[in-house]
Amino acid sequence: MTHAAEPAAATADPAPVPPVLAEVVRSGFVEGHHRGSLVLLAADGGVEFALGTPDVPVFPRSSNKPMQAAAVLRAGLDLSGERLALAAASHSGEPFHLDLVRAMLAEYGLTEDDLGLPPDLPLDATESAAYLAAGHRPDKIAMNCSGKHTAMLAACRLNGWPTDSYLDPSHPLQRLVRTVVEEAAGERVAATGTDGCGAPLMAISLTGLARAFRHFVLAAPGTPERRVADAMRAHPAYVAGTRRPDTWLMEGVPGALSKTGAEAVQAVALDDGRALALKIDDGNARAVGPVMAAALERLGVKAEGDVMARVAKSPVLGGGAEVGEVRAAF
Description:
Elements: E1 20-26, E2 29-41, E3 47-51, E4 57-58, H1 65-74, H2 81-87, H3 95-107, H4 125-133, H5 146-159, H6 172-185, E5 191-194, E6 200-205, H7 206-218, H8 224-234, H9 236-239, H10 245-252, E7 257-261, E8 265-269, E9 275-280, H11 288-298, H12 307-312, E10 315-318, E11 321-328
């Protein structure tokens, strides 16, 4: 007796392979690639160009910081100028950053021990070496998110909210952050995780991230979102540092709002509503600058001086000399 063959088990469609956004060139030979996703929004908010899967949720990491800073303003904390820029910062740990963090802690009756983030060295390699040479060890103030955490704690003190649980996703402040993220992105938070600094991390799509940055630059003057955007653009060195692409871009492109995030995330908005967001899948930050510069060029951005070249420059070294580059591949 023969038996009919059983039908083959159904298999799920394989996940799409992300496109190559950048290639690694050594001595004229392409030795590697960086894949990822990218979205560009036109001034009217419509998608002008996209690669990969920009509608799939990602963790924006520190590119979410403008939304977190807007939440502390909505909570009633009255920050402006350099202090508000530092609340949205991934600072390099330069002396002016650390001095202002210490000043803000003192102003709100807080101490370094109140900060719920891990001890660290300055994010900038030059500053980290100087910090160690001066006899310092990793501490909480030097961690690049210390300005954000100081602002969060100050908002909790102002409202009588618990400070020992301020990083719990169910805390009133973090619920407010979630509201700001969802309103700005125009979509629901897809997942909540824990960022490197210990704060709740809320996943949205790259398209949502670009919409959020566009929302901040187009918001009405005086609103929390616009106040954050204006402070960041007026004091870009406090958002990043003197040797960082976010600073160069905001200084060199009038009206630009720029914020990088760990795992190779980047978002930028221009004052007319054009915006972009990108993520390199392997998390390698060396590809971010070249891809961001090419995306801005595609958006028609004109920068002063050599800003775009500085942002795009990502050298490949051999024997201590520059023998190649990471370059955009679209």
